[in-house]
Amino acid sequence: MYFLIHNGTLIDGNGGEPVENAAVLIKDRTILDIGDEDSVKVPDGEIKRLDAQGGFILPGFVDCHVHMMFNGFRFENPLYTPLSLYFYEAVRNLEKTLETGVTTVRDAGMADYGVKKAVEEGLINGPRLQISVMPLSITGGHFDLQLKSGKTVKTSYPGLPESVCDGPEEVRKRVREVLRAGAEVVKVMTTGGVISANDSPEHPQFTMEELRIIVAEASYRDLPVMAHAHGSSGVKNALNAGIKSIEHGTYLDEECIQLLLENDAWLVATQLAHWSNLELLEDGELPDFSQEDARKVAMNSHKNMKKAYQAGVKIVMGTDSGIAPHGQNLRELGYLCDIGMTPMEAIQAGTKMAAELMGMGEVIGTLEKEKLADVVISKTDPLQDIKSLGNHENIVVVMKDGKVFKDLR
């Protein structure tokens, strides 16, 4: 059956001038034709029409850094939370994310192959997932959950590999275990983190030899690596080892920026998480060992993301939702404008550019012929008020793969 979206202004993700009185012709999962209404030839026969009611027709958004299995992060959570509850909560998180207008995500840790398959098979509603399964951490690193008391409180079950690994052979085996579990991208912690009990964001983690092994093992399957990296040393180590996606990049310096440019690498700014942590800090909800880190990270990230943007680094949308609250993903676009982007650049950072980072630019990220029909309709003009997209009530229609999942018209 054919599907026609009409009576809206098209912002296709390629950065050109918006097209008024636009139409998008869809058959099954794919865009057949697109342009102004006069140029789109509507076939004879049964056709379902969707009136955009003067709204703005955009590509489905792409969030390059989420945690669908997290709802905030407290070390004691696994003590009280039955394993099955994490999955039921993930169902709600996935639905919330899709309703914001995000139709594709890269999960940066803890969503396993079963979560991905449940979405693909239509058992639950959510964005399509690219998964990393389990981040890799050194002993005492950002994903080593053993505390100074000697106690370890973590979620574990078959299909979820161990995170901690040290030395060349252990690192090599752990990458292979993560890939065996279904990872499509390998996630590695090359620095400490904001919510770590045993380290700080500035501390580098893993040796260069270990990092190169991680990149090599992933490359044997033509898969990428993404690096959690706050401190400048960890950013440089990741880039020099061949990692192309830097998550956070809080303390990057001029040398980091030059390496990002020289390596044609990507920066995932995760501004939403930093500002959300400050909101938690103000409400007294962060543990003592995280409070100072949260404040310093937010301030330094804002300053250094501006520098990276001005230098021409490729910055894409990633929210760290799961650490930040789920269902607020498009607030990130406003924060990207706060570091200097125009509204159109921010939209591209959350569509075309993000899809390219994920290796999916040929099928999603822009509204073009032969691409998948991932379409969002906003009742507000994002080029005039980019922050309006952060209110999910302004996202009136969400379509993924040619199927409407949300319709508030």
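The record above closes out task 2.4. Task 2.5 opens with a second protein, given below.
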Amino acid sequence: MSKILFLSNGHGEDLSGSLMGNAFKKLGHEVNALPLVGHGEAYLNAGLKVLGKTNSFSTGGMGYTSLRGRILELIQGQIIYLIKRIYLLFSISSKYDFLVVVGDVLPITVAWLTGLPVATYLVAYSSHYEGKLKLPWPCSICLSNDKFFKIFTRDKLSAYDLKKQIFGKVEFIGNPFMDPFITKHQSLPKHNKRLGILPGSRMPEVGDNLCLILRVIDYISNLRYEDYDISFDVALVSSLNDSLLKNIITPYGWKLCYRSKKDHPLKLIKNNVVVNIYRNSFVKVVQSSNVLISMAGTATEQAVLLGKLVIQIEGKGPQFTATFAEAQRRLLGTKIFCANGSVLQKKYMIETCKLILDLLDSSSQDFFFNEKDNKLISEEKIIERVSETMAKSITDSFFNY
């Protein structure tokens, strides 16, 4: 069997890469990973070997970063770190039969420069953003090269668009990051109105995002609506531990209350408001929620593809900015709602809270949950275990390469 190296550059990309990597392992291949940013936690959690000494930076990678984020990248030495990772790739690439790229122009370009055969899941680009797929230079040159023997897109429109440029090797069969939702998971206790909260995954931005969302929850509680029986549930990354969490929320008047029983969640309490904290329970929180507040990338897409209603809150970045949020709305369409403007301004805070309460009312009546209205959901649910289908397709294409 083959020896395969995964290249990716971001938390969402690592997640898809880890799922695909496990699918290759089941087929008998040897799989290693070289994440270009971060520690590659998704690969490690999946039991895959991550190569080299890794580091994590506050911006979480290069993409829709704010100006502040780009300055931070320079100060923290992210560019130098990236050069070292690329050097490691070139020094070990001859040991592998082919590369699998999950990401954008950066890993695609460096994979091309190795001269190895490459399969890629083009997760970072979509024709839904601007109506036409506009790949940055030198993406088109790389993907058109014969060394790129298989290309998967994130949606049908992009596959159709790219096929006109690169012909038969482009295909859409679904998105691997939806695989975790195929297995039935235990739900949270039943509640008529459950508001899920996704503050993101990148440290330290996730802490700032959570505090911003807590402001919204505090404001909702002060509205004193008659039917105010809402369960607030946060899917929180383990990297924001109890000590860090306490330091972040205390200045805003919130208290951290530890579990009274092992199966009970950690709680944040302010006056009469209770917010439940769940770690390592992302799938459970998303599946159990009527509506979600999200300041995340891949997590938002997963929720929308499940048919959930999502409210965005614009953050200050460096990753989840107003620009990123707007691009996300173009990609995901009618299931995402946003009051354009910062909730730090009272006008937009009122709009956002009203939007949340209206959507909770509507969702509890099952008014919006009609999956036929969302072609993306239908496409995702046709195929089970997208990662396994991709692994088999890539293997067959490589042996015929």
